Each structure stands twice: as structure tokens, then as C-alpha cells.
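Morning run. Coffee first, then this:
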Amino acid sequence: MSPSISSRLSQLDLAIAANVSARHLSFVETGRSRPTSEMIVHLAEHLDVPLRDRNALLLAGGYAPAYPERGLAEPELNAVRDALRKVLAGHEPYPAVVVNRWWELVDANPGIALFTSQVNPRLLQPPVNVLRLSLHPDGMAPRIANLPQWRAHLLARLYRQAQATGDQRLTDLHDELRAYPGGESDESDKPPHATDVVVPLRYRSHQDGKEELSFISLTTILGTPMDVTVEELAIESFYPADERTAAALNPR
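And here it is:
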């Protein structure tokens, strides 16, 4: 089970929540009783274990995976793919991307060119990792006005995700990004602006640095997923954090 989730519940709490005998649950935990596949799925649901990890638990228990992992291009996911593209199109002219579990770019709208137009082309070779693109010194980092603050936010978020999932790829990505420059600055210990209600992305859209745009980000996931691929998709969308940014992206 996911350590970060299961550690929040005592064995008795889990037994009560899952309507399972505490004695039976103890036998399962100690290996004295072999759980059925239904019991594994039942407990995983109450622990909010991701579908990928539920499949791993089933395999470890000697059972077949219960949740498919289809490619996004497969016909069964046509409705999901179409819905994602409608969301991306509806968000224009503001930037928005679809990413997978490892922060790899799955799709994007034309607004994302605001962030990618001046980065090193090699960072745009598939698979594009949007966190690497953000913090790499040849990526967006030189134009992020509040880089220490934004970097700390992304690294903390990635660290929590890696800890929650136990995914070594995410841990390796965190270690890589943490080694990039940009964390040390006189600005790093300053509190956010008094008007900030979330951590903003302050981005210099031109090389001369004269125009600074400010964004807030929003993460959207698909509800009631029953497919591993679908569960691991997220839309990262950026909205203007002030009127000046809104006006710059919506010229009249």
C-alpha cells in the first residue's frame, strides 16, 4: 500500500472504514491469511491507492491486474482525448498543457508558445518534460522573475508526489531538477507579495525583460477514472494573475 496514505490510518480505523474484521485484516498484514483479489481492490480503494499501484498489489498477490492501461491514441480513449482537446482550446489564449504521471507533455494549446518560444530546441524534443523545461538553465528559468520561489514550489510538489507514489522516476527527476542553478538568491527568503493568494509564475516574455507577465496555475484531473492512463493525466492551465497580464494576452 502507499506508505504516505496507509500511515494515516491505524489498522482498526482501516478495518472499520472498509467494513472488514480487524482480526482478518491483521492476518492479511502479517501474511497469515492470503487476501482475495476482491479484498486487495477493496482495501486499496479505501486507502485511495492509485490504479497503477493497485495493479502492482494484485500482481504481487498472484492475481491479474484489474485496471487497463491503454494508449491515449487507442479508440477506447477517444472521448477522453476529445474532451482534453476541447478544454485546451477553450483555455486559449492562455497557456495550458496535458501531462502524465512523470510530467511528460501529452498535449498543449498554442498559448504554450509564450513559454517555449525562447528555450533551447533540444528541450522540446519528445518526450518533453515540462518541469525540466521550466527549471533548466536553457529552458524557461532565465526568464522567470521569481525563479527561487517558483523553483521551491515545483520541487516541493514533485517531492511530495515522489514520496506518495514511491516512484523512482519521480525521485530521479527531483534530484536532477534540484541540482539546477537558481535556488540561491536574495529573493529566495522574501515572502510572497501581499497581493499573492497563491504562488505566481512571473515570466519575462521578452529577452529585454521589460514585459513581466504574472500567472496563477490550476491543476485539473479527470474524475472517476478506471484506466491507469486516464487517472495519471492532468491539465496544467495558467490564468492571468493581474489585469496587466490579461490585457497583454487579450489585445484589443
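The longest strand covers residues 212-221. Good start to the day.
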